[in-house]
Amino acid sequence: MYKRIILIALALMPLVTIAQNDDAAAVHKVLDDQVTYWNKGDVVTFMKGYWNNDSVMFVTKNGPVYGYQTVLAHYKKSFPNKAAMGDLTFSGLILKRLSSEYYFVVGAFHLKGTANLDGNFTLLFRKIGGAWKIIVDHSS
What we know:
Layout: H1 2-39, H2 43-46, E1 57-60, E2 63-66, H3 68-78, H4 82-85, E3 87-97, E4 102-112, E5 117-128, E6 131-139
Parallel strand pairs: 1-6
Antiparallel strand pairs: 1-2, 3-4, 4-5, 5-6
């Protein structure tokens, strides 16, 4: 009996690993797409990486901001055009799977352009409707 359970568990392990690798790749793709759209000056499409919901949270130096539209308005106000947005890169990304539904990401951002900004961020991703979305963003 125990041998059968162990054999089944061993047989399923590659499937779990594949799912984790696919999820990690999907989270990376969200981040890659955000860089691409940011660097095109397209903040609206950049925001597709975020959960379009009133509960999404963006933590700023002034405290948390809630809601997809509020976060979008914050970005539009802070970065009104492509020149202000500059070119974005991420570095030092660490992805930590918390469960089949959540990923935690730590990294650094670099904006080069009119204003050169460097900082760090933490993101909480949630798999919603089969897609990975940022539900909490703390950037400083």
